[in-house]
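Final report, Chapter 2: Outcomes

The project's central promise was a pipeline that accepts a single protein chain and returns its three-dimensional structure in a standardized token representation, suitable for archiving and comparison. That pipeline is now operational. To close this chapter, we reproduce one record exactly as it appears in the project archive, with the input sequence first and the structure output second.
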Amino acid sequence: MNTVEKVKELCRERKIPISRLEKACGFANGYIGQLKKGSIPDDRLMKIATFLSVPAEYITSGTVSATDSETARMAEYIIENDTVRLIVENIKELDEKERAWVLDAVRIINKKKH
């Protein structure tokens, strides 16, 4: 299954119209269907992954790496220790990779709360 097919499958499972994903991500109507090679540029893949609340790696490979399990453990720690305020106050000091990791953890937290 290529990347575009995986995005379509995730949308189908979540009952999200592709047009809604495209609009939310700022893409042109029909953009996903026009990706003939089955791959999505990295910058757009990140927007899609964020919208669908999944790691980009899951869209491209269908698997979750150890890094993602570390993110899940971080999310558990944040929930248990109520450290969200502290993280938000200091997020500007984190590098890009660390900020992405924190944002992934926050997405996991949001899923658990809903």
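Archive annotation: The two ends are 30 Å apart (CA to CA).
This record, like all others produced under the grant, will remain available to the consortium after the project formally closes.
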